[in-house]
Amino acid sequence: MDLMRAVQLTGRKTVEVREVPLPPLPEDDGVLIKVRAVGICGSDVHYYLRGGIGEQRVVYPFTIGHECTGTVEMCGPLAQDLAPGDRVAVDPAVSCGECDQCRAGRPHTCRRLKFLGCPGQLSGCLSEFIMMPARNCFRIPDSLDVETAVLAEPLAIGVYAVDFIRDTGVSRVSILGTGPIGLSVLLAARAAGIKAIYSTDKVEARLAAAERLGARWTGKPDREDVVAEIRSQIRSQIRDKQLGLEAVFECCGDPEALEQAVELLDPGGILLVLGIPEQDQVCFPIHGLRRKEIRIQNVRRQHDCTQRALELLAEGISDAAALITHRFPLSETQAALELVSAYRGGVIKALVTMS
């Protein structure tokens, strides 16, 4: 039996590099991909620390990871647009193409969606090879390296989130939580022409990154009244004591951020929820919501935005590559997970790279 190396969770906070069977030879539109780089995501940390997210519980051993790039090794007969040697970024969400959601043009909410590195769905990409449908593989532009291209997965989420307010005239937004997803929203918002962006986070390195990428103001919610500070900033810049924000992107999963968002938003504003809370239920200040007639828009990953994200990265959008702050070999994946989970060393995005 042909074997490959894969990183597997074998218990909470326990990781082993094991030999597992190679994926089978590709059939139909299947593509065998030799993995080159994998980004560590917040959901990976949830599985590592807590053994699950909500009802999705890890059954050990299990391979995590869903942000990846690689090189096409072999193609099935129906994968005609790809060839061995092509460098690709991977959309980790595999939709069925047949359910009511897929037929309605909503493959990201497919009833039978299978996701890389999600318990009960697909084994993850922290392995030497993975198999994916050709439709989930996007060629990396020649001007873009395979490590920076890993950012296409989180950036696609940012692009999709900003699409909800694109071309609406929104000019003042806040991003609550500037980890990789929040910073991806910031990059997408800047690319869409939004200049008044107010960002918050409890981690200094993330706030510094937000400033470098174009945030007008940054603040720490555990050290200052960020609602009062943002309102003060708006008053000083447009001299209207009544105006707040037209849109708020909640990207941290902290219930307090939802309350801050309601306070910050103008009547008729939109709250876009991207963060994954640890709790199964969260509360909203209902009277503020109803009096202001605030709209709540959950953002379910992304919809057909991977190619646009790759193009933005290839164009050199801001300094996106600087979001990758740490690199680890496959054998040191646990160290990468520990670093990210503890927010140490100024980490923004840690990569596991394959030799």
Give structural notes.
The protein is an alpha/beta fold and 355 residues long. It has two domains: 3-153 and 303-353, Quinone Oxidoreductase, Chain A, domain 1, CATH 3.90.180; 165-298, NAD(P)-binding Rossmann-like Domain (Rossmann fold), CATH 3.40.50. It contains ten helices and 19 strands. Strands 3, 6, 7, 10, 11, 18 and 19 form a seven-stranded mixed β-sheet that branches. A six-stranded parallel β-sheet has the order 14-13-12-15-16-17, sandwiched between helices. Strands 1-2 form a two-stranded antiparallel sheet. α1 packs across α10 (333-342) and α6 packs parallel to α7. The mean pLDDT is 95.
Instruction: Look at the structure and name the CATH superfamily of the largest domain.
Output: Medium-chain alcohol dehydrogenases, catalytic domain
* Count of distinct structural domains: 2
Annotated CATH architecture of the largest domain: Alpha-Beta Complex
The main sheet comes to: 7 strands, mixed
Strand-residue proportion: 25-35%
The residue-averaged pLDDT reads 95
Structural class: alpha/beta
Task: Please identify the oligomeric state.
Answer: single chain
List the total number of helices.
10
N-to-C CA distance? 23 Å
- The low-confidence runs, each spanning 5 or more residues with pLDDT under 50, are none
User: What is the CATH topology descriptor of the largest domain?
Assistant: Quinone Oxidoreductase, Chain A, domain 1
Q: How many strands appear in the DSSP assignment? A: 19
Order of helices and strands: EEEHEEEEEHEEEHEHEHEHEHEHEHEHE
Gyration radius, rounded: 20 Å
The level-1 CATH class of the largest domain: Alpha Beta
